[in-house]
Amino acid sequence: MSNTGADGHRPSLLLVDDDATLRERLARAFRERGWDVTTAGNHEEALAAAKRESPEYAVVDLRMPGRSGLEVVKDLLAVDASTRAIVLTGYGSIATTVDAIRLGAVNYLPKPADVDDILAAFERASGEPSLPAPETFEAPSLARAEWEHIHRVLADCGGNISEASRKLGIHRRSLQRKLQKYPPAR
C-alpha cells in the first residue's frame, strides 16, 4: 500500500484540508511514496474531484469552513462506497469519532499526523488487530469527560450552541468559552 505495485498501479488518495500548507506537505510526502494524490480545500472541491475520478483512499480534516469533514466523508462514500476514508482533527472527541465511524470512515487520527501515522491507520483498519485489547481501563479526567460530554450534546443539537447550552443548563457565552479551549489531557 505504501508504493507503486509490481503491476505499476499507484494507489489514489484524496486529501481534503482547508490548511493549504498541511495539505500540500502531506500530498508531497504521499507522492514521494508512489501515491497518485489529488487535493481539495473544502467540501465542494472534494466532491468535484471524487466525481471526476473516485479515489481509493481519502484523508479528510474534520473542521473546515462550510460543510464539515463528516459531511465530506458521507458524500464521498455516496459517490463510491469502496473509498477508504480517515478523518483527521485537532479537536477530537469520542462523539465525533463515533460519528466518523458510523458514517463510514475506517479510522480517525488526531492532528498533527504525518504520512507514517496515516499509512499505519489505513493498515490497522484493513487487518486484524496485532495486539489484544488492553485489560486495564484508564478513566478519563473529569475535565476530559466534561469536554467530551459538551461536544456530544453539541453534536446531538446539530451544532446549535443556543440549543446545546439549554440542554446543558449553562449560559450560551460560557459554552462558547468552553468550546474555544483545546481538549484537556486524558
From TrEMBL:
Q: Which SUPFAM superfamilies match?
A: CheY-like, Homeodomain-like
Positions bearing 4-aspartylphosphate? 61
Please give the start and end residues of each transmembrane region: none
Q: Where is the Response regulatory domain?
A: 12-126
- CDD domains, A to Z: REC_RegA-like
Kindly state which keywords UniProt assigns to this record, in alphabetical order. Answer: DNA-binding, Phosphoprotein, Transcription, Transcription regulation, Two-component regulatory system
Query: What name appears for this protein in its UniProt entry?
Result: Response regulator transcription factor
- Origin organism is Myxococcus landrumensis
